[in-house]
């Protein structure tokens, strides 16, 4: 078991860079915080590179730590742990993980949520968590959507990225893939040709596109959909939050007896 | 039209205190930021005490400002505006409003969302916005739920507090009121006696209770409900975010043709 007590240690300096998206992508690694999430990642066989903990963490999760491959464990000082944490009150445990690699030719069967330029990390994370709960097959993030390894997205996802594939890919390519297989693609928008979601019949395979908080789904994608759907607004609100709208639509489209 | 150029001005010092809940409640006043929200408040006849704007705001919204009662308007320096703002990049306009006073004997007709100790400001604000969109009659905040005049709640509500009554009251008293009128009260929980929301028939009048992010609805309230309902989890997520759950339930319970 390694031991690192100084924040000036070169490995710690490298890991701290993972707070920035650029370095996460270069290294294909990211940081998660808190025991619950780390346990979830390990249970889902995510590729753990390091588990760092301070004295408090060592005491609190000693049984669990004993069960882990000892070459992954790093005992660190409180200062080191705080320097790696992005939480106001860090728990005593942090892990560094390798990003999953999905097969380029992964078969996109079942029902998929497609996020087009959704920018708020809380919205992206919550939608992935809801897709998991509703039983969708996976989530695809197109250009512009928030990086899922951002600490706010990770907190909002609550580990759902370990339960279903979350893939970054061009939505135009993905939509073509669905179209070739005659799988319906639903866009979301308010226009005269859109229909209320309650009139959409339930099917086993579909793709649902949710769009940017301000602009909605981009025009070039809406033109490729089979049907554009909306959620009726009965009161005086101008619109729904995009994550709420996604929740209502996914729970409607999936069959729940 | 008043003009205040110094952050040391006594009125500005007083208004700054409204960033704290304690002072908001003592003065029964609160601050909103951004033109869109202020316009919404004015259109809904909310009681505006002051509209403060800097030179940029004066240029950008001159036509609208001309239409307002001139005794409400306060031209302020950029420093003063920044000192009152809680946004990273303040727009050039801020308003001070008086909190609405609801009749103690307000008739609770129609459908109501009851929030029991919901703590996250974003969740509270989003649920009020969704209740508005879904067409509910109003929202009641019980003990412990976030203050709606917190700037984060105000941002998430997007003006829905000007569209439907949002009342702070003891939920136990409110539930007794509904019970006396034979209006069904739905709690939300996961227990063997709870039923799936898809099996709840739609009625015109009801109360739906959503609970704390961690603990759910408190036991003492669950004991008073007519029916406890849950949303099935089909995937591996442990739970849904409370605002997403509220959105799914409200859109299911309200009739939308």
Automatic annotation (TrEMBL), chains A, B:
What InterPro entries does the annotation carry? Alpha/beta_knot_MTases, MRM3-like_sub_bind, Ribosomal_eL30-like_sf, rRNA_Methyltransferase, SpoU_MeTrfase, SpoU_subst-bd, tRNA_m1G_MTases_N
Q: Which UniProt keywords apply?
A: Methyltransferase, Transferase
Q: Where is the RNA 2-O ribose methyltransferase substrate binding domain?
A: 31-103
GO CC field? cytoplasm
Annotated signal sequence is: none
Asked if Transferase is a keyword of the record, the answer is yes
- Please indicate which superkingdom the organism of origin belongs to: Bacteria
Q: Write out the GO MF terms.
A: RNA binding; RNA methyltransferase activity
Q: Does this UniProt record's set of keywords contain rRNA-binding?
A: no
Q: Name one GO biological process term.
A: methylation
Q: Which Pfam family, any one of them, does this sequence belong to?
A: MRM3-like_sub_bind
Q: Which family does it belong to?
A: Belongs to the class IV-like SAM-binding methyltransferase superfamily. RNA methyltransferase TrmH family.
The record's annotation in PANTHER family points to: RRNA METHYLTRANSFERASE 3, RRNA METHYLTRANSFERASE 3, MITOCHONDRIAL
Q: What is this protein called?
A: RNA methyltransferase
Q: Which organism is it from?
A: Enterococcus moraviensis ATCC BAA-383
